[in-house]
Amino acid sequence: MSVRKVAELAGVAPMTVSRVINTPTKVRPETRERVLKAIERLGYVPDLVASSLSSKRSRIVSALVPTLGNPMFSQVIQGLADTLRAADYHLIIGDTRYSAKIESALVLEMLGRRPEAIVLTGPVREERIRKALLRAGITVVQIWDLQPGHIVDCAVGFDNYAAAVAMMRHLLGRGYRRLGFMAIVGDERARERQVAFREALAQHKLKPTFEALPSRFDPAYDPTDEFIRQIEQHPETDAVFCASDMLAHLAIFACQRKGWAVPGRIALAGFGDLPLSAKIVPSLTSIRINQYEIGRRAAEVIVQRAGGLRPRTLVQDLGYEIVERESTAPP
Amino acid sequence: MSVRKVAELAGVAPMTVSRVINTPTKVRPETRERVLKAIERLGYVPDLVASSLSSKRSRIVSALVPTLGNPMFSQVIQGLADTLRAADYHLIIGDTRYSAKIESALVLEMLGRRPEAIVLTGPVREERIRKALLRAGITVVQIWDLQPGHIVDCAVGFDNYAAAVAMMRHLLGRGYRRLGFMAIVGDERARERQVAFREALAQHKLKPTFEALPSRFDPAYDPTDEFIRQIEQHPETDAVFCASDMLAHLAIFACQRKGWAVPGRIALAGFGDLPLSAKIVPSLTSIRINQYEIGRRAAEVIVQRAGGLRPRTLVQDLGYEIVERESTAPP
DNA sequence: CACACATATGGTACCGGTACCAAAAGGCGC
DNA sequence: GCGCCTTTTGGTACCGGTACCATATGTGTG
User: Fold this and answer.
1) How far apart (Å, rounded) are the C-alpha atoms in residues A80 and A98?
2) What are the backbone angles phi and psi of residue A6, rounded to the nearest 5°?
3) For residue B281, which of B308, B263, B304 has the smallest C-alpha distance?
4) A199, A166 in Cβ contact below 8 A?
5) Does A224 sit within 8 Å of B45, measured CB to CB?
6) Which residues span the domain enclosing A270?
């Protein structure tokens, strides 16, 4: 099944079939009809692989995220997929499982598919990879974090550090002084929030009561148990900043089991503003990032670039919003 | 940058370069080294598009899911992606947004990429699509639901109906008699659970107190509000079967706000056993489906098929497990 | 040492589209 | 009717790999 077969049946040249598919207006309506009928009759589905090779336009974008298990990233992917599909692109995805090594290998693999753009989560640290990306000459969009020194081409995201600082301002503003911090171990992107946490405390001449890095995989560091352990060891703690809403949810449940009032005994704040955070009891103070919009904007940049435009802004800061809810009501 | 360039630099024929990449053992070690050095020096990345066209093996699998927003499906995708990558395949994804129309269009688009297999969520209803899939002659794996009449080729999943029946047996066994049902509107896959709900009640000569289909998008049918409305209108209700854990979580929070004891005033059961369900207070009775495993097995079938094997079983029922927790403790 | 045979490498055509240019057909003014 | 320009269609080569077969080189045996 090929253009040639269709062309034969319709009594035209292969090239005309190609035109019917790609630039229908350039074919006389009656010819077009004849070709369309032949396509229909044969159940012909154009081979995009051949098309990609010949036209040097793959209409493929590949995206790498740390994990699809985290709803934050799947939101981004959804924003990407929706917008790209509307522009006739397809999305190849890879999950790096938070590993820089897997990420590097994946980037090279992906480049083999000759995508027109590649979407990466966070910074590009390896020089080898940066070089390969530049040599490929394709659009590179880095999403999520906006770390100045590490941007290869374009970036769409928000300032992780500033967001965490804003949350600390909120907590300190509410009068909390004995603060703890929790983040999933290995989450590179939480690191900056931890730095912000420390520095904000230092500015007020305060010290963390604890900084815990529980694991989702190692049962010895189960987030719930770890939270309880830390609070019991540091009972003076009056608020905990969790680097992700999921952790904060677990902390709320742990408090319920223990009979610790939230807020009252302990205030809790999260990051990411998952849908559940507005509904949970008590509702969770969090930092809202418009994930879907990050994906949508990234796709937009890609489509614009493909259309030959140089987008005005190479770095788009979509900002964040502190959503104040019950879990951090004044003590 | 092409095999020819590399071949020239290494002083061999293009074909030898191809062999170094695909079947290294068929090349004398010293020749191989020379070629590898040339590849390294030029930063050559083989063009998989050309390779696909020429070899008629795209090493691409495409997967369609209703949404990536639902952690259940992203788990499946992750299982797929991990296993496929280990076998040197790439994954193209599409989300159908629960729309049969989008799904059909996507299937055709995807076929254009000449994937070696396509993964679909649930049944194939349109005859046109079924035909196109058969004509493409590729492996079709339907995941999730195992509906007998709708399987094109292979299927990996569980029996939705049986799972819901088992949950009803559990609820009735615990003595609950005045049952309500909730599912997100438009969720095709919840439909069977609803049927099971009704039939199980009918067998006990019972009638549902209510069946509600809230929406995640239409604020007039916000799941939380809808749940409260239904309970207030049908105060005799002593248990609610939610077609997804997410709904059950929202219901728990609604009960907390209203001061309704769970269990006690109302028992709640979910579906899917999200990680949070074990942690929430009260912990949620649910039906566990091993999502990741569904993805893994689907990938396994695909890889086996590609290797020329006909897998023993075309339909793999991975089963389910009723996880009894606090939310349905006896009244 | 000739022969059969395995191993290593090369040459050529082809996968199924499309870019590019040439040619034919149609439209219009004078 | 002729020339000129636009629109429509066709022919050919090529994208960058690999299948297939031919050829060259090495290996063991009687």
Assistant:
1) 20
2) -60, -45
3) B263
4) no
5) no
6) 160-289+323-328
- My answer on whether A173 and A149 are in the same domain is no
Question: Which tokens sit at B219?
Answer: 């604020």
- CATH number, domain of B148, equals 3.40.50.2300
Question: What is the chain B residue with the closest CA to A225?
Answer: B279
- Measured at the alpha carbon of residue A109, what is the angle toward residues A61 and A190, in degrees to the nearest 5? 75
Q: Which of A315, A292, A319 is nearest to A140 (CA)?
A: A315
What the block records as the tokens of B231 is 């309970």
Residue-by-residue pLDDT tens, chain B, 331 positions: 899 999 999 999 999 999 999 999 999 999 999 999 999 999 999 999 999 999 999 999 999 999 898 888 999 999 999 999 999 999 999 999 888 899 999 999 999 999 999 999 988 888 999 999 999 999 999 999 888 778 888 999 999 999 999 999 999 999 999 999 999 988 878 889 999 999 999 999 999 999 999 988 888 889 999 999 999 999 999 999 999 999 999 999 999 999 999 999 999 999 999 999 999 999 999 999 999 999 999 999 999 998 877 766 789 999 999 999 999 998 7
Same domain, A168 and A272: yes
B3 contact to strand D (CB, 7 A limit): yes
Residues A164 and A284 both lie in one domain: yes
Question: H or E segment at B65?
Answer: strand B60-65
Residues A260 and A183 in one domain: yes
Instruction: State whether residue A115 sits within 8 Å of chain B by CB.
Output: no
Across the interface, whether the CB atoms of A90 and B94 are under 8 A apart is answered yes
Contact (CB, 8 A) for B290 and B273:
no
Do residues B262 and B194 share a domain?
yes
> Taking chain B, what is the end-to-end CA distance rounded to the nearest angstrom?
72
Chain A residues within an 8 Å CB radius of B75 = 68-69
CB contact under 8 A, A49 and B49: yes
Nearest Cβ partner for B81 among A93, A111, A281: A93
Name which of B62, B102, B113, B215 to mutate to probe chain A: the one with the most chain A Cβ atoms within 10 A of its Cβ. Answer: B113
- Tell if the CB–CB gap between B91 and A95 is shorter than 8 Å: no
Please name which of A296, A297, A299, A294 lies closest in space to residue A59, comparing C-alpha atoms: A299
The total number of structural domains that make up chain B: 3
Which residues of chain B are within 8 Å of residue A103 when distances are taken between CB atoms? none
CA–CA distance, B63 with B72 (Å, rounded to integer):
14
Contacts 24+ apart (CB under 8 A), B139-142: B139/B301, B139/B302, B139/B305, B139/B306, B141/B117, B141/B298, B141/B301, B141/B302
Q: Which of residues 164-223 of B touch A (CB under 8 A)?
A: none
- Nearest CA to A291 among B49, B68, B258, B149? B68
| Cβ separation B69–A68 shorter than 8 A | no
Statement: the CB of A132 is under 7 Å from strand C:
no
Asked if residue A51 is part of any domain, the answer here is no
